[in-house]
Amino acid sequence: MIYKDRNSGFHFDNNIAARSENMDALQKFGFKLSGGAHIARTIMLQDISNLLSTVTVEANTGEYKIAVIENNVLSKKTQSARNEAFSRIRSLYGLSLDIPIFCVYRELLQFESKSLPLLSLLMALARDPILRVSAKVIVDVPLGHELNKEMFKKIIEERYKGEYN
Prior knowledge:
Layout: E1 2-5, E2 9-12, H1 16-19, H2 23-29, H3 45-52, H4 61-70, H5 79-93, H6 100-111, H7 116-127, H8 129-140, H9 149-160
Helix pairs in contact: 4-5, 6-7, 7-8, 8-9
């Protein structure tokens, strides 16, 4: 997705999944090729941090759900907010031992918890096609220049042609 070209610096390949000859393999590994939680404009960093600190590495999806909805480890005020948070965080991170990239994410966090923000961003890029597409906008803006809503809107409209408003 991000690679270094010897001659011209870093480049962002936001279309890796679309060009892949084996999209089924990407999906089995845990990539999502459509949809995405990023419509909410967040990778839920504080929520995933709180959640992962309360369940074991071996936890199954049901244990994550109990932690969020019944035990309210994310400190949401209402039941509907807990349900929504669980739905979004599960879509974004997987929360399943059946998703290989989630297992790797959890294992890596055991070795270096300070890497949570970067590893979470990498997970979100793999699991959220909208974030993957919009990341190109961020990477391409020169340091010190401003991003605006229209820049994101343009690239999402180009890629998804009328799917989002």
